[in-house]
Design goal:
The chain is mainly α. The chain contains 26 helices and two strands. Among the domains are: 93 residues; 80 residues.
């Protein structure tokens, strides 16, 4: 459509008006790679350019990650506005190139709240909270935006004490809560599992009688659900005066992810009774609930009801849930048949799910078929780990050795999994054989004692102990 309009503009000789090529450049830039090429061609042949022309072109290039070309135009630009500087700065930040971002920031002739906030956000996302805090403290003027960025950054990285301290300071400095601040901080709490910070924000909402929009309530329910506090999530959900489909989906998925399949299906039934039409996300939650709770037949019925009763054509995510459902229920042949008959090319997630089911039930032959005869992502160490575990459980140590050799031949290394726990408003993260925690000595000592006690209680002397080889094989 844009190309057709462009053709008509050229035919009628309207390109002489600077507003017209500027509008075309901006519109082309919204269509990704091919649009940027068209925009750049038009920009190159445009005789008269103003600041808007340059900014639109540079902005389009940064959006598609063409930072080198954007910087080239930036350096060629005769007169730059603060918008130009901030556009390139934002491009570097989004690409994670913080060294270049800081150098550009340092050379800016003037900075505004957007410049400072962008750099604070960049360092927060990069995990360098010390630098983010230095910049935040140096900001000459602060609005609620940088406060929200730095607090959310601390929460995401597990520094709950620092986040609460800044949150209290923000209130003392006279900043009032708004939807953006509440949603951003609660979303960070959900991401990091920081229940303490989430409770702090919820307490502020109730104490200040903050009028919650549906979006804020949804984020609050999601935070409690992700942090494992289902009672509070359910209480907030039931207290909502107005709900949308997203509200129901969040509550349903909250129950599903924690294995409360029956409760999730009850939410689904209540949702329909109250006149809400399920969408594709709803059915992902329903199928996950059935999978985790072992409701195989109910899950199959829901899957086929999607298109028949609601006109929702199953997508690859729904097929993935079904394969997981059948796999967990040891119906591996049906799962394998579904993979071969689904109207999509199976991706790595689909094959990985089937491989995981093979591991669960010790289906060594099917696992080898999955890995050897199909387009499984061979650069994903998790797939090799699962296959090695299947062989180990079957006592096939030659198979384990073969998998390890395959990993080495393609240069794949298995990254250690991580677990986290919140204690005294601080999130502690651990990985396998991690010795970075200041109390690692006493922690490993306790783990060793617990392991010995569990063996003693669960397995009498001379009993054959099952070996969990998840981290030992690879």
């Amino acid at each position: 459509m844009v190309e057709m309009i462009h053709t008509q503009i050229e035919k009628n000789g309207f390109l002489g008006d600077i507003f017209v090529p500027n509008a075309l450049i901006d519109n082309y830039s919204r269509f990704g790679g091919w649009g940027i090429k068209a925009a750049l061609r038009l920009f190159t042949v445009t005789e008269h350019r103003d600041v808007v022309s340059w900014n639109s072109m540079i902005g389009g290039l940064t959006k598609v990650g063409e930072l080198r070309e954007a910087r080239k135009l930036f350096d060629e630009m005769p007169e730059k506005s603060i918008i130009t500087w901030n556009t390139v700065l934002n491009g570097y930040v989004k690409a994670g190139e913080m060294k270049e971002a800081f150098q550009l920031f340092e050379s800016m002739p003037q900075r505004n709240i957007v410049s400072w906030s962008t750099l604070v956000m960049g360092y927060s996302k990069a995990g360098d909270m010390d630098m983010a805090r230095v910049l935040f403290d140096e900001m000459p003027v602060k609005t609620s935006v940088p406060w929200t960025i730095i607090i959310s950054g601390y929460v995401e990285k597990g520094f709950t004490k620092e986040a609460i301290e800044l949150y209290d300071r923000m209130g003392r400095n006279g900043f009032k809560l708004d939807d953006g601040t509440v949603i951003s901080i609660l979303a960070a709490c959900a991401e990091s599992g920081s229940l303490a910070m989430g409770l702090k924000v919820h307490d502020s909402i109730e104490r200040l009688k903050f009028r919650c929009s549906v979006a804020v309530c949804n984020t609050l329910v999601n935070m409690y659900a992700k942090c494992g506090s289902l009672d509070k999530a359910w209480s907030v959900f039931n207290g909502m005066s107005k709900r949308d489909v997203v509200s129901w989906n969040i509550m349903l998925q909250g129950f599903a992810m924690h294995g409360h399949g029956r409760e999730a299906l009850c939410v689904f039934e209540r949702m329909k009774k109250e006149g809400f039409k399920p969408d594709r996300v709803t059915f992902i939650g329903v199928l996950c609930a059935c999978s985790h709770a072992g409701f195989i037949d109910e899950g199959i019925q829901c899957f086929y009801a999607m298109e028949k009763d609601y006109g929702i054509v199953p997508e690859i995510e729904h097929y993935g849930c079904m394969i997981d459902l059948l796999g967990r229920g040891e119906r591996l042949k049906e799962a394998f048949m579904l993979v071969n008959t689904m109207p999509f090319e199976p991706n790595a997630v689909i094959w990985g799910t089937l491989l995981g089911a093979c591991r669960l039930h010790g289906a060594t032959e099917l696992a080898e078929k999955v890995l050897d005869h199909f387009k499984l992502d061979r650069m994903d160490p998790g797939n090799y780990s699962m296959l090695a575990n299947i062989f180990a459980a079957a006592g096939d140590w030659d198979g384990v050795a073969t998998v390890r050799l395959q990993m080495k031949s393609v240069g794949v290394q298995k990254l250690s999994g991580a677990s986290s726990i919140e204690i005294d408003n601080e999130v502690h993260e651990f990985t396998v054989f991690d010795r970075s925690h200041p109390n690692f000595g006493s922690i490993y000592g306790m783990v060793h004692r617990l392991a010995q006690e569990l063996k003693r209680v669960a397995h009498p002397k001379d009993a054959t102990l099952p070996v969990e080889v998840g981290e030992l094989v690879i």
